[in-house]
Design brief:
Chain lengths: ~160, ~190
């Protein structure tokens, strides 16, 4: 009965992953992360993803404060933030977020402030969506581990 | 240090991105390498025992000028391979490559460059200037598997050097032949 719970949760997880891949939110790099997780590094994926969340939110704050500054002109600095965001997104398989960064960078290279603002809005939205989905994924995984680990003392 | 053939290979990883450091560290550990990860080229040089921040007008370090600088430095820690990101603030991976290859103590350490950007001229320049491999990010396990031959080559070279060193030592120490060998030593 418990095995069934763990199996169902695993199916839920796979379904969610399939959805995320299908929508282009995640790519194969995320699978690479999962493959690197094992008994010697059992929390690898969540560790890396949590670092990603932390860094991304800092970058988003920086980008927003740059653009909100009325006298903003440091597109070069914005480019540096964007390159960092692109790199880290690519490293965890956050495909859609990365693609928005690419468009954002293009607007930045054209010194197109309005375009940058629009790109930032989109980036914040995509990032938010990704974060929610990854949290969902981790929650299911956690439940699955618990379900798989619980043993009844007696069986009839 | 580290002369036993069974000792793990030690890889020095250099990347300013924390996430990428975590990734490369995990990839390397999964492949049974011992890893040291640092976040800049200058920290990498410091770790090796090369004074990284010592500029002294050495903009384009030629082998001669760099070895003057670190004449006294043996390899403090045994490093069998260096894998570095290309784009880093301050010293780029390419700058680090040049420093390593320009150093008499460290030029034989294989260097691998990683980059998120696929720029052929950049890749060619790195390979021409001594990088063994150039990996596009995100780095995969299949990339890390390509490191082993470079590490094995380094180790067999090291073993060859140790064997000939030891042979030389034995000849010096054998009492019967001291007189004859002494002459040979002077020639060397």
């Amino acid at each position: 009965m418990l095995g069934l719970g763990a199996d169902r949760l695993r199916a839920d997880m796979n379904r969610l992953l399939a959805f995320l891949f299908h929508q282009g939110i995640l790519d194969e790099q995320y699978l690479q992360l999962q493959q690197l997780q094992d008994e010697s590094s059992p929390n690898f994926v969540s560790e890396v993803v949590n670092i990603y969340f932390h860094e991304s939110e800092k970058l988003l704050r920086n980008l927003r404060s740059l653009l909100m500054d009325r006298e903003f002109s440091d597109y070069k600095k914005m480019g540096i933030h964007l390159n960092q965001f692109m790199g880290s997104s690519s490293s965890i398989g956050a495909k859609r977020v990365r693609n928005v960064c690419v468009a954002f960078r293009a607007a930045s290279e054209q010194n197109n402030r309005a375009g940058c603002l629009r790109a930032l809005e989109l980036l914040e939205h995509e990032y938010c969506f990704l974060k929610n989905k990854l949290h969902e994924l981790f929650q299911i995984e956690q439940q699955r581990v618990l379900a798989a680990g619980v043993r009844y003392p007696m069986q009839n | 240090m580290g002369m036993a053939t069974e000792a793990q290979f030690h890889v020095l990883a250099v990347d300013d991105s924390l996430i990428d450091r975590k990734l490369i560290e995990r990839l390397l550990k999964t492949s049974s390498y011992h890893v040291t990860a640092v976040d800049s080229g200058s920290k990498a040089l410091e770790f090796l025992g090369l004074n990284g921040s010592h500029e002294d007008g050495q903009r384009n370090p030629s082998p001669a000028s760099v070895s003057l600088d670190e004449d006294q430095h043996q390899q403090d820690v045994e490093v069998n391979l260096i894998i570095t990101d290309y784009c880093m603030p301050g010293m780029t991976g390419y700058d680090l490559l040049r420093r390593i290859k320009g150093s008499s103590s460290f030029k034989d350490i294989p260097v691998v460059i990683m980059s998120s950007e696929n720029i052929p001229s950049r890749i060619n320049r790195c390979l021409e200037d001594g990088a063994e491999e150039f990996f596009l990010k995100p780095v995969q396990l299949s990339d890390v598997n390509k490191l082993r031959p470079h590490l094995m080559k380094g180790r067999s070279k090291e073993m060859q050097q140790n064997i000939s060193k030891r042979k030389g030592m034995e000849e010096i120490l054998t009492p019967d032949r001291t007189r004859t060998r002494y002459n040979e030593l002077e020639v060397v």
